[in-house]
Amino acid sequence: MELVHLLIVIVAYLLGSIPFGYLIVRKKVGADVRETGSGGTGATNVLRRAGKAAGVFTLVLDALKGAIAVVWALVIAGPSSHAAWIVSAAAIAVIVGHIFPVWLGFRGGKGVATGVGVFLMLAPLAMLCAGVLFLAIVFFTRYVSLGSVVAAATIPLFVWLQSVFVTPVANVRPLLTATLVGALLIIFAHRGNIGRLVQGTENRI
Fold this sequence. Notes:
Layout: H1 3-16, H2 20-29, H3 43-50, H4 52-77, H5 83-99, H6 112-122, H7 124-141, H8 144-166, H9 172-189, H10 191-199
Helix pairs in contact: 1-4, 1-5, 2-3, 2-4, 3-4, 4-5, 4-6, 5-6, 5-9, 6-7, 6-9, 7-8, 8-9
C-alpha cells in the first residue's frame, strides 16, 4: 500500500473517531453519554440523555462523517487501479473509528449512523432496503438495537441481490467486503444489546 493510500485510511479512522455524541452531551448537560443506556455515544443514547434535538443532531453528524470519509477516499484515490479497495478500506476505517475512537479510550458508539453515511454513498439502493427493514422492525418492536443489527446484517445481502437481479454492481467484491466487515463491526458493537434482547431486558424507545 502506498503512503497516500495509508493516509486515506488513517484520515478516515480519525474522522470516524470524532465523538460528536459525547461532545454534544458534555456541552449540553455536562455528563458522559456513555453512562446512559447501552453505554454508547450514538444518537439513541444522546436522545435519552439530552433530548430529541441533540439526538437528531448527533445522528446527522455521525452519518456525515461516514459519507465524508467515502468522498475523501474517492477523490484522493482517483483513477488508481486499486481505488475500489482503498475506498472499501476507508469505509471500514471510519466505522472502526466511530466504534473504537482513539480520543475516548476506544469506547465509542455502535457504528450505525456512520454506517448509514458510508453505505448511502457506496450502495444507496441496498441502504434504502435496509432502512425500510430497520423502520419496520423498530415500529413493531420498539427496539432500535434489533432494527440496527438486522438492517446491518442484510446490507451485504441486498448488495448481492442488486448485483444479480437488478443491475450489475461495478467493483462488487470490494463493496461486498466493505458491507460485510461493516456489518460484522456493527453487530459486534451491539453484543451487549443482543445479550439483553435474549434476556428480555433491552430498553425500548
